[in-house]
Write the structure tokens for this entry.
Amino acid sequence: MKILFIGPKFGNSFLLFKTIKYKFKNTRIIDTRNILPIPKISNKIFHHISPYFFEKQINHKILENVKKKYDIIFVKSGEIIGKKLILELKKYSNKIVFFCNDNPFVNRDKNKWKLFLSSAKYYDVIAYQDISRINLANKRGLKNSLLVLPPYDSKIHRKYKLSLREKKKYNNKIIFVGTWFPERGKFLKKLIDNGLPIKIYGGRWEKDPFYEKMKDKIEIGHFYDRNYSKLIQGAELALCLFSKQNKDTITARSTEIPAIGTLLCSHRTKAMLNIFTEDKEAIFFKNVNECLNKCKYYLKNKSLAKKIALNGHIKIRKKMKASTSNLIDQILRY
């Protein structure tokens, strides 16, 4: 099977490509990281003004790299593919699929998804990991939606044998790995103010109004692959916070954290309760006060915390078909 993958050669997108490549040797990638000129400036225009300024250039750069027909075109960078481009790509493949792990139907990311919204109905299948996306797609009359579990990478999201230096480096009581958003800043500040030993890793945290007061608990950057997994592994408990603006009810962290083997502490949603038995395989909270109380309780009751973490680990890795490999099979079978 010949597959063309369109997405960044970076982060979880690259992990997805490598898994497809492992399963289907005749797979090639169009790396979309530098598809725009002067990315720092172009991305701001793309998001805040209009992506249509770049549509012609994007189409040219993609199509000049498509020289033959493929059995499947697998899209990860759906935000850059508009109606004109997808109709051209259809000349090179009978099946075009898109794994969308974001929410293209809300305004959190400004104009990021404008091109996608013009091309959405032309995909053969769009896989979403959150039922909220399916509901919003249905409201737009889209008939090509598939609900999947957020995938974990079985080779990356696992336990590692850590050196003494790494054990010290990654040792944390409670950890949150993720990008700053205002509601996340307020939530974590309240936990910190109430004495929880939290370490925060992620981008944009310097934007938080209380950054100066919290900066000793924050490490700014992007954390991927083995480094990300070791951060999660080194913590007793890992927080999974959803974005209200994005209408999240489940995210990639929801499977990655238990796949690695750390206790998952997440917002309580129907999607999460459909996967995990509460207080047996993961712990959930409705609001910041419940989160605070549960974190304090499980930091004191370490043997119970380890038991729940193990049960969650078994649920994801042994019982649920949530690996990247399973995701690919499910999408390609559709």
Remarks:
- The chain is about 40% helix and 15% strand.
